[in-house]
Design brief:
Elements (H helix, E strand, L loop, with lengths): L1 E4 H6 L1 H11 L2 E5 L2 E6 L2 H8 L5 H6 L23
Parallel strand pairs: 1-2
Antiparallel strand pairs: 2-3
């Protein structure tokens, strides 16, 4: 990721935005410390989109209507010497 000092980023804000769109996140530093990151709107949406839960995941699965045998074997567990 490219880094910009705050003053330089302010002076070249249009360039920083263009680079964020074309090349990815741009880091802005203040007094040598990484302070903020400028990202494109597409990347921001990807980062903030809600995560799907397990129920949604399985409901959207291409195997949703497959005839899978998910029954459990009800045998007793094997004996183990301890």
């Amino acid at each position: 990721m490219a880094q910009w000092q705050l003053q330089e980023a302010k002076n070249k804000f249009s360039e920083v935005v263009e680079k964020a769109i074309k090349d990815g996140p741009q880091i802005v530093t203040r007094r040598g410390v990484e302070t903020v990151v400028i990202v494109s709107m597409d990347e921001y949406r990807d980062l903030t989109k809600p995560k799907t839960d397990i129920v949604d995941f399985f409901q959207k699965s291409p195997l949703k209507n497959a005839n899978l045998d998910l029954s459990r074997i009800k045998d007793l567990p094997r004996e183990v010497d301890i």
